[in-house]
Amino acid sequence: xxxxxxxxxxxxxxxxxxxxxxxxxxxxxxxxxxxxxxxxxxxxxxxxxxxxxxxxxxxxxxxxxxxxxxxxxxxxx
Length: 77
Known about the structure:
Elements: E1 2-3, E2 6-7, E3 12-17, E4 27-33, H1 56-59, E5 63-67, E6 72-76
Antiparallel strand pairs: 1-2, 3-4, 5-6
């Protein structure tokens, strides 16, 4: 994988994204890239630690509207 610090080897894992407390179906993936996000942060972010980076392979199932001025997003299925 290419990173800002140069090439880095990462593991691939099967995985599932689920959305507890909603009627949204789970989405299964044959191959997700493993990455240590424990030390990563997002400037101005509220809440807990960064848990995942959502890529186009997941977002293609939804309509994402991001309001950058208010720091809000809406995810529709």
